[in-house]
Amino acid sequence: MSFEQIWGRIKERTDIRTFSELADLVGTTGPYISRKKKENDFPVIWAYEIAQKYKLSTDWIMTGGEKRSSGDLKNHGQRLEITGKIEEWLMEEIRKNPKRKDWFEVEFDKAFEEFKKWKEEKEESAAAAAYSSNRKVA
Q1: Whole-number average pLDDT of the chain
Q2: Are 36 and 3 in contact (CB under 8 A)?
């Protein structure tokens, strides 16, 4: 999904209207958010922070899938117990040093090769869908 699509969903379901407001919530700066927009990269950790505050589904924020609120997810609390702790710790680390986000992504990919392969397949699939969609428009 594109940064713009994700940003549109966030504005649709929250009271967040500016990059400055988003930056305050996710613990970064407006210019960094602008940079991520230019790179068309909306970090999942930001979606998670928004989902937690506004009782939304991280998946819905990132993909626009049908599950809009965290209440829609079965066993949501159990499923996210460990990931919630990891993400809370990571956000604290990123607030201290924004480069820790990149470090974490690299180390996570190294530690979990299966995840890295899954992520690459998802990215390839999304790129192919975007290419197909663009060809239909042209």
Answers
A1: 82
A2: yes
